[in-house]
Amino acid sequence: MYPAGVRYAYFGKIRMLSINDIHTPALVIDLTVAQRNISRMADYARQHNLNLRPHSKTHKSLAMARRQLDAGAAGLAVAKVSEAHVMIRVCNDLMLAYPIVDHARAAAIADLAGRKSQMVRVCVDSLLAVDVLASAGQAGGSVIGILVDLDVGFHRTGVPTPQAALELAQAVDRAKGVRLDGLFCYPGNVSGQAARQTASALAAVQDALSQTLVLWEQHGLRAQIVSGGSTPTALQSHQIPALTEFRPGTYIYNDRNCLSHGCCLPEDCAATLVCTVISNAVAGKVVIDAGSKSLSSDRLAGGDERSGFGLIVDYPQARIVRLSEEHGEVDVSQCDTAPALGQRLRVIPNHICPCVNLQNTAWMLMPDGTIESLPVDARGATW
Length: 383
What we know:
Strand 9 (178-184), helix 7 and strand 10 (225-228) form a beta-alpha-beta unit. The protein has nine helices and 19 strands. Strands 3, 12, 13, 14, 15, 16, 17, 18 and 19 form a nine-stranded mixed sheet that branches. An eight-stranded parallel sheet has the order 4-11-10-9-8-7-6-5. The chain is an alpha/beta fold. Helix 4 packs across helix 5 (127-140) and helix 6 crosses helix 7 (199-218). It has two domains: 17-28 and 258-375, D-serine dehydratase-like domain (Lyase, Ornithine Decarboxylase, Chain A, domain 1, Beta Barrel), CATH 2.40.37; 31-252, TIM Barrel, CATH 3.20.20.10.
């Protein structure tokens, strides 16, 4: 994946730098792969006349957000208010894919919505959220766009029925300081390889959305936006005709979960954590310098405990079996040849989003072989 030697601009000077010279653990993003992933999803959106709203929680990077917008993304999804305050520097159409029920966050959103030429929307699933956002909008002299969150099977957030969605939409329509913009869903219950994402599962999402939209229309309400999607379902979004936009996030980098779900091939994984073997003192095991502070402790989604904490690219039979803060313990008993002490390894994280959030900066491998620092601009955006 990486060339033997690369150039790095260091305090204004250009010098040759081997990947082995980078301090580890280090998150390295192959820009060629990431850009290919960006272009592929943008092409799909254009082909199917869908708006693409990438979820920025994966990369948390202004530079990567610009690349997605330059490729044709209609706007960005963000996870939290503080992330919105970062991404609004490059995007004037943001959707907060997270319900707000407290006055402090609502006031911060109202401030963003009141800025010239900014479009800010929030998904909600309660009357309390509507009341809090409406109060903030009125107090701030702004109007906040609202999408009603409908549960289509994942059972995390979202009102449970089309009737409940109608009642919430009517409350939004009556309130001042907010504006009813549409319907929101997250089909996280539809996962696995595309061929196994059955027509019935996708049809169930479509049925829930269409029932709600018909009910709204019967009561004089309109959904300008119907927003759904995830990386596993992204390329099946056209099979849910009610959608006007979709919100994949992980696709820009991909990860081991995407590999296991069949969403991508190994060559589509743009992000790897480069680490160093620091100990081989215990038989059948090596220890790397990447622990829970670098890889995160997320297990493989839908996998068993034996799946480990990441895929070691050059030693696929190895298993990262235990993480402490600074150490990753790797079972190499099934490997024909064990990694050597001091050797650099590349790990595809199970879940790239928290892994990115654990880094202050990443390294970006450019097409010409140079390496550039990539700030994780929205790191720690938790409120």
